[in-house]
Design a protein that fits this description.
The structure holds 2 protein chains of 2 kinds. Chain A is an alpha/beta fold. Chain A has 7 helices and 9 strands, in the order αβαβββαββαββαααβ. Chain A is globular and about 40 Å long. The chains are: A alpha/beta, B alpha/beta.
């Protein structure tokens, strides 16, 4: 577990996704995982509006180990930014708002030139794993449960065992499929070497 | 065992209804309120609310009509709405109050159209001001759960028998997930005994009807004496509302004894007011954000505190005179406008403190309409600006706004307005 994370008061997370990709559920599950991992206060703040499938959406998460969280407004300077869809990096406002350590769902050969080289970037091919494992809803690959696996590896905020508990409580008979894919994402997520 | 669950604000309200064993729920969807009744319908379908009648209706007006009718049979009833849905209920809101029915209605607050906005501000809540309902606010999801229970307790008090709102910010609370302690139902029963209203239209022996036609003067009923006129009905409604302040405080006291959680004195909450010279006055999300502004300003050496109003109707003027008696400046942040005048909280506070022996300077700002994010830095800046103003009452009709982004629109200022 990284020391920096433990000593900070509040961990701020921004999730970028597209409508239908499960980003809002991901922020929800992330709170569940952190709460089970012993965090005292957790906040999941979806930025909901007039969404439709495919439109860019955002979710915000605040996690605090021992203090009550008083701040309910949107996260501006995140410690971690999760990007569910690399095509979101075509949108200037998304790129401009990037902050903290970035976890990106993308194929490994992804060109990351649009992200400033000062950012630490981790990549997981959640879409690839999901398609391979046939983890689909109405023809769309499930991403959120996998990305939370990768996030666990990247941050050490919660363990795979906690993911298992949360998915069991949440998904009934489908927990195992989701968990095994999350485990695969956990094992395959990589920090990207960047030229500075 | 009481359990801590991660709940969205809407679901906290639904769990409160479950804990309160509501007898009837009418549901009509509107963003951002819908998940309240959706969750209750899940409870009903799962058999977790065996005594609850869940009624789907075709409009908000039907929803309030249905809960009024059900309440008149002595049942504990619930519905929820937002913005234009709540506005559509408006005709029947005074009906619930005038019939003295303890209806509880949750408002996930949202800006009133037009133009359309699904995001939060408090215009819908304050538009219900003069209907005779008790109006309570919540600042976080636990408080929503606790306030719904308290609202039932107060509304069903035989000295009150009035409907009550529990209002909270759409999205900011309604869709935000946070830990909420859901209490044992037996413990809730202790706080909230079964409703025994004298109005029960299924009791044919004693209750003949409700909502009679009244006359300007009390009519002579011969051997039965005089029947009250409209004026007397409305007088008793007003007296009960005034009296309900002490009922609310007492209910809150008992609540905190049973459950160990408290919210100021049940009527307003304070933050760092002990040695404050300047006070922020706000409600709901704006009050929540103001707590951080207080911390921020205190680091800069300004002795600021916060008074967060929990009960707006009845308006606790005596409490406010007391809490503001040693305060030099009050800065009010309204997330709504009393159009053509100023922010509602601002002018209500001015009225409450009128001729108070130590009247503070009161400066009002309009913030965060239609869901515009309001940050603690902006609130702090507003306080600092108000403190440097020579006379805050110079031009009261010219309201001041914080967080406008006119520069992006290249607005041209025209003579006489925008």
């Amino acid at each position: 577990m990284s020391v920096a994370v433990q000593t900070k008061d509040i961990i701020n997370v921004v999730i970028h996704g597209r409508g239908g990709q499960g980003a809002i559920t991901a922020s929800n599950l992330l709170c569940e995982c952190a709460f089970r991992a012993g965090f005292k206060d957790v906040l999941d703040i979806p930025k909901i509006g007039a969404e439709r499938r495919g439109a860019p959406i955002q979710g915000f998460v605040r996690l605090s180990r021992d203090k009550e969280i008083k701040l309910y407004s949107g996260v501006r300077n995140a410690d971690y930014t999760l990007i569910f869809d690399y095509t979101l990096l075509d949108i200037p406002s998304v790129v401009k708002s990037l902050s903290g350590i970035i976890l990106l769902n993308a194929p490994e050969f992804m060109n990351l030139d649009c992200i400033d080289p000062s950012f630490e970037v981790w990549i997981v091919d959640a879409t690839g794993i999901s398609v391979k494992n046939k983890l689909m809803i109405s023809g769309f690959p499930i991403l959120n449960t996998l990305i939370l696996g990768a996030f666990a590896k990247m941050t050490g905020i919660y363990s795979l065992d906690i993911i298992k508990d949360v998915y069991k409580a949440r998904f009934g008979k489908n927990w195992e499929k989701n968990f095994l894919s999350a485990k695969e994402a956990y094992e395959s997520v990589k920090k990207v070497g960047r030229k500075i | 065992m009481p359990s801590i669950k991660l709940l969205k604000g809407n679901h906290a309200a639904a769990y409160a209804c479950k804990s309160a064993r509501v007898g009837m729920v009418a549901a009509y969807p509107i963003t951002p309120q819908s998940p309240v009744v959706e969750k209750i319908s899940e409870f009903v379908e799962a058999g977790e609310l065996p005594g609850t009648e869940f009624v789907k209706v075709e409009s908000e007006q039907s929803a309030i009509a249905a809960v009024i009718a059900a309440s008149a049979t002595g049942s504990r009833v619930f519905t929820a709405s937002s913005a234009n849905g709540l506005a559509y209920m408006h005709e029947l809101l005074p009906w619930a109050a005038g019939t003295r029915l303890p209806v509880v209605l949750c408002i996930a607050s949202r800006a009133l159209a037009a133009p359309w906005s699904v995001w939060t501000d408090h215009a819908d809540v304050f538009a219900t001001r003069d209907c005779g309902w008790i109006t309570m606010f919540a600042e976080n999801n636990q408080e929503i759960y606790d306030t719904v229970l308290t609202a039932y307790r107060v509304a069903e008090d035989p000295n009150v028998y009035l409907p009550a709102f529990c209002a909270y910010d759409g999205y900011i609370l309604s869709h935000t997930l946070m830990p909420v302690q859901v209490e044992d139902i037996e413990k809730v029963d202790q706080f909230l005994p079964p409703l025994k209203h004298h109005i029960n239209l299924t009791d044919f022996e004693h209750v003949k009807g409700v909502g009679p036609v009244t006359l300007p003067d009390p009519p002579d009923r011969g051997e039965y004496g005089y029947a009250p006129g409209y004026f007397e009905f409305r007088f008793s409604m007003q007296r009960s509302l005034e009296h309900s302040l002490s009922v609310i405080k007492q209910a809150h006291k008992e609540f905190s004894e049973i459950f160990g959680r408290s919210y100021g004195n049940g009527v307003y909450k304070t933050y760092k007011m002990e040695d404050a010279e300047v006070a922020i006055f706000a409600v709901m999300s704006v009050a929540a954000e103001s707590r951080l502004a207080v911390d921020f300003l205190r680091e800069k050496g300004i002795k600021v505190g916060l008074v967060s109003l929990k009960v707006f109707r009845p308006f606790p003027s005596e409490d406010l005179r007391e809490i503001f008696k040693d305060i030099s400046n009050v800065v009010v942040f309204d997330r709504e406008i009393g159009y053509g005048w100023e922010g509602v909280l601002s002018y209500e506070l001015k009225a409450a403190l009128y001729k108070s022996s130590t009247q503070p300077d009161i400066k009002g700002y309009i913030v965060g309409l239609g869901g515009r994010d309001i940050t603690y830095q902006q609130i702090a800046k507003g306080v600092q600006t108000a403190l440097t103003m020579e006379s805050v009452n110079e031009n009261p009709i010219q309201t001041d706004f914080i967080g406008l982004q006119l520069d992006k629109l290249q607005f041209l200022k025209r003579e006489g307005g925008y």
